[in-house]
Fold this protein.
Amino acid sequence: MAVLPQKIDMKPRPRQHTTSRTPLIAGAASQSGAVFNLSTTIVGAGIMALPAAVKALGLIPGLLAIAAAAKLTESSIEMIVRSGRVSSPKPAAAAASYADLVGESFGSAGKALTRACVVINNLGMLVVYMIILGDVLSGTSSGTTHHTGVIEGWYGPQWWTSRTFLLLFTTLFVFAPLISLKRVDSLRYTSALSVALAFVFVAITAIVAVVKLFDGTASMPRLLPEMVDWKLFTTVPVLITSFVCHYSIHPIESELRDPGQMMRIVRVSLTLCTSVYMATSLFGVLLFGEGTLDDVLANFDVDLDIPLGAFLSDVVRVSYAVHLMLVFPIVFYSLRQNVDGLLFPRAVPLAQDKQRFFATTAFLMALAFLGANYVPSIWDAFQFMGATTSVVIGFILPAALTLRDVHGVAAKNDRILSWFMIFLAVSTSFVAILSDVYAFFGGRGDGDRA
């Protein structure tokens, strides 16, 4: 018996579009996980350096400057998110990375420049994290004063309480497992814990400051800056660097169930982080006044002269040390991706090549470890990054994308804001570099870092 052929439906089927309610990838990330990951990217070492910046600026201008830096950061991120949406071939999706977005407007040279800036900035941030960890665990010196680290204070000077050994131990047994993960969303739980630990630091600092205010032993900070202080001009790069997170926007957005919610996530994260920054800066300068160090965590090496003061000092330092350990892999993720993009632009994705993935990871981790042992101060690192790569990533590139406007989505107000951001970035970087040169050649006394 003959078998009749089946009738084939030749009608065109409607094209399936990806909408903002449709997950773009399997196992897409939640909004809460994205908030924690982005907040972790922002609240890293900045929380340690901003009290010194507020001390230099004066309390009122310093807190206002933190709020202004947050607002400008929100505007600059909105520029790249909007441009990324238009550039993506998928509705409601995003550009693959910050570098890809810049490359669409400025070609391969722009793409390479973006990657290079992210590499320098992120590597510098990782070095700062490890410097702080070394300060917390093994101690640091400011001039002729030595500030004892937690482990050094518990067990005394030993070969295994030295800075190099403790950083090596942390690298092998904490960082190595975390930086071996291949997806940002895999770090959502450690990011949530790191944000919680940052709040522990802020809460204890606030409690101690309030107690000291009531008993009259708190240090009253300057409300306005001393205009003769050259360090005043180096605070703007520190403020900018503290909020730079642009390189993490696209990796986080690409894993969201609903990429259309990215700006809401950004606003929540910036509000959260700005609150932490302002509270830490306020209570930090109330506690330590003119003695506030570049790394305020180093100030907690003494008994705070309140009940359980020594115990609270250790809790503050240990909690924030663990926080930085959990921040480290988030920043490392973008560093590794951009290094791979620079060196192997046409290779298969890094996560699919195990040998390349682990070789790149090991090389970058070794660089961060060496830098942490030879860079003298987090303020020096913050100034360098803030005056160079951070202003490019945070202000100049978003503004340039808006002014270039290859998709015609920029409004007149966007262009005005873009020119202002470029002017602010260039002028503050120029002045900061000049002030550093002045300080290096005699404007700063020996050992005066704070």
